[in-house]
Design goal:
The complex is a heterodimer of chains A (about 375) and B (about 200).
Chain A (H helix, E strand, L loop, with lengths): L1 H17 L9 H7 L17 E5 L5 E6 L2 E6 L6 E3 L9 E8 L2 E7 L4 E5 L4 E2 L11 E6 L5 E9 L7 E10 L2 E4 L14 E4 L4 E5 L2 E5 L5 E2 L14 E4 L4 E4 L4 E3 L5 E2 L10 E8 L5 E7 L10 E5 L22 H5 L7 E7 L4 E6 L4 E7 L2 E2 L3 E2 L1
Antiparallel strand pairs in A: 1-2, 2-3, 3-4, 5-6, 6-7, 7-8, 9-10, 10-11, 11-12, 13-14, 14-15, 15-16, 17-18, 18-19, 19-20, 21-22, 22-23, 24-25, 25-26, 26-27, 26-28
Chain B lengths: L1 H13 L1 H4 L13 H5 L8 E17 L5 E2 L6 E13 L2 E13 L5 E13 L1 E3 L2 E16 L2 E17 L4 E14 L9 E15 L1
Antiparallel strand pairs in B: 1-2, 1-3, 1-10, 3-4, 4-5, 5-7, 6-7, 7-8, 8-9, 9-10
Classes of the chains: A mainly beta (about 375), B mainly beta (about 200).
């Protein structure tokens, strides 16, 4: 009998030692209760990547989003997304990006050349500002002051040995697009992906390069070696004091000579998007999205108290808990396992969206000082 | 010499599907009448049980706020191996290692590996045996990349047919209660209730 008890004790001890134990952020059964079906949301978004989501004011106000060639919208006060027909949309192209300012929506199609549509709430203009480069528009970037940029892509070569991709940036001015400067004409870089402005200058992040300056005279910024082709940057956000740039493994304060944060998980981690939003219980939180890639399959996002940005920037590190825009249970059962393509915050409706890579569109509403938690659109 | 017997048991189990039909031992109907009427579970008898079956998540009981909730688990599979040693006529103690796995509503995966000490009672009316049991131990619970060690209590019964002097086959049904207590987050305290039903093969050592 004693021998049997000894064997049982040895088995229990071995199990405790040999099995890796990560206790988890919350009770596991409690987490399971929070699970929701993968197909709960709008069918068009499920298992897809939304190209953009943005708010367009009007009567009523709408959120617009796109998946593939399909443009969708829902009433800001509603829950149901409907498909929007875009008259004259080029066949065989997908919606590559979309932005808005006030009551105006702009969407681009690719690979059709120079295709930008403008919707003013009533009429679609299929030849908005007549961009005429002969190249597809891969990105539209809208700064917080209403300045729009269009990014075109020129590709040459037919094989991997001679194939090259170059980007040009144009800025919208007085009914036409003009060059943003020689520094961003046919430049071999990553795709210009995001823009931030402090009200006078702009920072446009393009993988291994950052362009900065006024809209008609952008120039390559002097960036640290921590931003390169193998360590690209993706996101930019102006928090009212400084421009934050999300790179690979680190955030950078572009307003302080690219001061570098502490490591976000790993020096290989690709931080896709950075945004500052209200925090549960007051104050602000900085959210930093993570995009999984071949060398680092981490997913989800990081968060930390935005007040840290005002201190020594090298001390900025992610929080270990997830309680600033959701709670641990909600986070673990929603975005934890999804790559984040980008965040969008509607500061009027206080709704935060997360576009995920083939994981749908998610939203989270701030009301009365508390976030509702992530839920599928 | 327990080791050779154990190895023999494993080998026999590996060929169980064909072995059951290729027994050289006499079938139960040919055993001496005395074997049918006497309870063969006397002190010193030992058994190894192998089981495979279906695992039913029932409910989560909220130990903090009260009430129950859907487990968000799909019906899964369970398996196990146990050893019993008869310490008194018709009563044994032993140990059991099991596994249970389920898919989840969000297409994630969940599994538990309980290690338990087990007490069993044997009620025999040859060739049938009814074996109620209770077990207690620790369950490794794994979900979403996180691992917990939780207390587990089980109770149920096996209904067996004595096929030969060496083998019994039947159905084992066990109710699992897995207790999750968190001192720092008491609102997450839960009791998980599951039903495990398995086909069981018992080898009499």
């Amino acid at each position: 009998m004693k021998r049997i008890l000894n064997i049982a004790a040895a088995i229990l001890l071995a199990a405790a030692v040999l099995v890796s134990c990560e206790p988890g952020p919350a009770g596991l059964f409690a987490l399971l209760e929070e699970e929701e079906p993968l197909d709960k949301g709008t069918a068009a978004f499920n298992a897809n990547t939304a190209a953009f989501v943005t708010r367009v004011n009007g009567a009523p106000d709408y959120y617009y989003a796109a998946v593939g060639a399909t443009l969708l919208r829902r009433d800001v006060a509603g829950t149901t997304w409907e498909t929007v027909s875009v008259p004259g949309a080029p066949a065989g192209s997908i919606i590559s990006s979309g932005v808005s300012f006030g009551t105006d929506l702009y969407i681009s199609y690719a690979p059709a050349a120079d295709t930008i549509f403008h919707f003013d709430g009533t009429t679609w203009d299929a030849t908005y500002d007549n961009l005429s480069t002969g190249d597809p528009v891969q990105s539209l970037l809208m700064a917080s002051n209403g300045q729009m940029f269009a990014v075109t892509q020129a590709s040459t070569g037919t094989s991997s040995s001679d194939y090259s991709t170059e980007y040009s940036i144009f800025y919208d001015t007085a009914g036409t697009f003009a060059s943003s400067g020689a520094a961003v004409t046919d430049v071999a870089s990553g795709r210009p992906n995001s823009v931030a402005t402090d009200g006078s200058d702009y920072w446009i992040v393009a993988g291994n390069k950052v362009f900065t300056g006024v809209e008609n005279s952008l120039a390559e910024d002097a960036i640290p070696a921590d931003i390169s082709a193998t360590k690209p940057a993706f996101g930019a956000f102006y928090d009212g004091v400084r421009v934050l740039i999300s790179g690979t493994g680190y955030l950078f304060n572009a307003s302080a000579a690219y001061a570098k944060s502490g490591t976000f998980g790993s020096a290989e981690r690709r931080l896709s998007s950075v945004i500052v939003v209200p925090k549960n219980g007051g104050g602000n939180a900085t959210l930093v999205g993570v995009k999984s890639w071949a060398s680092d399959e981490y997913t989800g996002y990081y968060e930390y108290d935005a007040a840290l940005n005002a201190g020594l920037f090298s001390s900025v590190v992610p929080s270990t808990a997830y309680d600033m825009v959701s709670d641990n249970s909600n986070y673990v059962t929603t975005l934890d396992d999804l790559s984040i393509e980008g965040f969008y915050f509607d500061s009027v409706g206080q709704v935060l969206f997360a576009r995920t890579v083939k994981g749908g569109l998610w939203s989270n509403t701030y009301s009365g000082g508390v976030w509702s938690g992530w839920d599928r659109e | 010499m327990r080791t050779p017997r154990f190895i023999l048991a494993v080998l026999l189990t590996a060929t169980l599907t064909t072995g059951a039909f290729a027994q050289t031992e006499p079938p139960a109907s040919d055993l001496p009448a005395a074997d049918f009427n006497a309870n063969p579970y006397v002190r010193g008898e030992q058994t190894l049980s192998f089981s495979l079956g279906t695992f039913f998540p029932i409910t989560f009981v909220n130990l903090y706020a009260g009430g129950t909730a859907d487990t968000n688990l799909k019906i899964g599979a369970g398996f196990g191996i146990s050893y019993s040693y008869v310490v008194a006529p018709g009563f044994s103690v032993g140990g059991e290692i099991e596994g249970a796995t389920c898919g989840t509503t969000a297409e994630s995966s969940f599994f538990m590996v309980p290690f338990t000490a087990k007490a069993s009672w044997y009620f025999v009316k040859m060739p049938f045996e009814i074996v109620p049991s209770v077990s207690a131990g620790l369950a490794i619970v794994r979900y979403e990349g996180y691992t917990n060690f939780n207390p587990i209590l089980k109770g149920g019964a096996a209904f067996l047919w004595r096929q030969s002097s060496s083998w019994s086959f039947g159905l084992d049904a066990q109710a699992w209660t897995v207790w999750q207590f968190y001192g720092d987050i008491p609102q997450d305290n839960r009791l998980g209730i599951f039903l495990d039903t398995r086909l069981t093969a018992v080898y009499h050592l």
